[in-house]
Amino acid sequence: LGARRGEGDKISSPAPGSPKAADFASMDSVVSPQVCFLSQGPVITARFSPDRKLLAVQRSETEIEFVNQQDGSQFWQKCKSSSKLGLGPEVKLLGFFWCSDMAKFDIVFVTTAGLELHKLLDSRKGLQLKDAKKHPIRWYKYTADTRLIIIATGDDCTRLLGYQFAPQGLIKLPRFDIDLQNEGKSKGKQALTSDSIHPIALYGKLFCCHINPLAERVVLYRLYKDAIIKQFSYPTYSPHMGISIVDNLLLVHHMNSGLVMIFDIMTNNMQPFVSPLPVLCKGSAAASSNYAAAGRLQSPANTMSLSPSTRSESLLSVMASQEEENDGGEDKTNPFKRGNKAVCVTMSNFLLAMDVGNEMVWMIELDLNAIAMSCPNRLHTISFLHRRVESKHPRWNPKKMIIGTVKTMVQENESIPILKQAFDIICYVIASSPGSNLSERAASQKVPSPAKLASNNGGIDLQQLHEQIFESLFEDQAVEPALLFRAMETFYLCSSSFRLKLPPCFFELMIDMLIAMRKFEVLTQYLSGHFFEDSKDLARKLESLSADYPHMSQYALDMYFRMKEYDECCAVLFKHGRLIDALKMLKDYHLSSIAPTAFLDAAEAVQDPMVYASVYRFCKEFVPGFRAKPTMNMNM
Predict the structure, then answer these.
(1) N or C terminus of the chain: which is more exposed, having fewer CB within 10 Å?
(2) DSSP track, 201-239
(3) How far apart are the C-alpha atoms of 581 and 579, rounded to whole Å?
(4) Pairing of strands 205-212, 217-223
(5) Mind listing the pLDDT tens digit for each residue in 414-457?
């Protein structure tokens, strides 16, 4: 968890163009907020429009005030009555929210009688009612990230329905009932409250999250257009909890202890991805000694972290700008300390500490290094890191961590079957990453990995993977050459199954390793069977070895010929004195890379009259304007 506290105790909106949450953690100063001063009177809710030009303020249960931030003008809008004759129950305004990227609606009023969908006038001095959805509403929950509103109806509020405000239009979701398991054991039948329902999005999928404190579970209902399915049910082992969604991960906060449980729906495991980790305040004396023992520098701001008991890297670190230091004893900056009220902002990485007189806003930042170290299964770790978005982790690079994990597996002589599964995961992500030319065969390939992959953010660069794993281990002599070669052979087979093109340096290193191990028979078999992918760089490598191993020139020549690099073939033949063969290729493929006089000079150097005569006859017959006379002198 990484966060900073804003200046003062005023409620404000970020200025336009202000940094996002991912950028906030790396900054040393707090961005100045956009402050709007309001006239006197009660304020129930205040929300800025998406363009920050209008501020809507709900001051009563019937009316909303709109303040233009550019010229200071104001207008008021009341919610509609339930009956034109004034009969029936009085309609109350429960709240409102702005819509973004919708052509028909700009703002939605939520009343006890339903939804009122309004369009902002071109003058920005009034609203026009465009549509209304009539439902008896007890309470509602809306998040801008999901653009989804969940409405509770019925006496016990367990009957829910939803609308999604998508750019293509308003989408109505089916009604569904919340299963209140174990809640009937309490005295009397309790109604479902808005604090226990949250619309969330994970990996692009919409869910309704139900926090069941009595059952000590978090239940996720998958939302489809035509059906609602109860899909996941996670144990929390605590009735006092809050949730946060960070980088498509469900974080369950134990409010009374500060423990955080991480759930990843892509693992299909009903248990946390890693063991729950405790909160440690880095600004406290205990945390300072912990940091000193870890050998890391503290930042100027007081920080809080969630760390394993082994004093490894923090899982979540929270930073709060404070001028005064704690005098010891209880850590006053801990948002989970006894007696403090912490509120989780569900679809964001923010946590509110509502301690009277010391209110703070904390920003959550995952420590991927600590999560990777806490996960006992490295295959799960590789899959987990592949699903992370780099921009949301400025202090940790998921791709570099994957490379480090695989390098450690090779260095520690992990079994080939396990390495193959790790390589399969990496190759699958590279082959299915956006922009890649994925063949139908690769698209239908089933990866035998222990965790599913979805919405990956691009694979690892193969050149970088080769340099930082295989080439680095070979140069450092950290692994036995035979074991390293087997690992490289396994990786090549995995990449071939997904039709990935490896860089030539990968095969050059395999050739160097076989020569270093003096396994010439294996090298000959691989070259004869075309095991290595053809490339000009690899052919040059084979040609360079011909000085010590003459038969390598033929393999280089064959590789050039398969790639239709006839100029290179002619040059190799010419270099090794095979002038007649070079002339035939020059003639057959109409090449001009080598001048005829060069062939004559080379033939004279050979000191073979038959070769010289053949070259001279060829030049005289096939080279236009050739006028040279035979000048070869043979010293018998």
Answers:
(1) C
(2) EETTEEEEEEEETTTTEEEEEEE-SS-EEEEEEEE-S-S
(3) 5
(4) antiparallel
(5) 999 999 999 999 999 999 876 665 544 444 444 444 345 544 45
- Dihedral, CA of residue 604, residue 605, residue 606 and residue 609, to nearest 10: 20
Query: C-alpha dihedral over 395, 397, 398, 403, to 10 degrees?
Result: -140
Dihedral sign computed on CA atoms, order 587, 589, 594, 599: negative
CA 440, 442, 443, 448 dihedral sign is: positive
Q: Which residues contact 309 (CB under 8 A, 6 or more apart)?
A: 278
Q: Residue 148 in 3-state DSSP?
A: strand
Owner of token pair 């008021």: 76
pLDDT, tens digit (0-9, with 9 covering 90-100), for 186-223: 555 678 888 899 999 999 999 999 999 888 999 999 99
> Is 351 in contact with 345 (CB distance < 8 Å)?
yes
Q: Is 466 helix (H, G, I), strand (E, B) or coil?
A: helix
Whole-model pTM: value is: 0.77
The answer to whether the CB of 130 falls within 8 A of the CB of 117 is yes
CA–CA dist 4, 30 (Å, integer): 7
Cα 466 to Cα 432, 469, 627, distances in angstroms:
20, 6, 54
| Nearest Cα residue to 485 out of 528, 516, 527 | 516
Rounded Cα distance, 222 and 205, in Å: 8
Residue the block writes with tokens 């205990």: 286
Tokens at 234, concatenated: 């996670």
The total of other beta-carbon atoms located within 10 Å of residue 382's CB is 27
Q: What is the mean pLDDT of residues 390-399?
A: 88
Q: Identify whether the C-beta of residue 276 lies closer than 8 Å to the C-beta of residue 265.
A: no
Integer Cα distance of 576 and 590 in angstroms: 21
**C-beta neighbour count of 319 within 10 angstroms:** 27
- DSSP-derived pairing of the beta strands 249-254 and 241-246: antiparallel
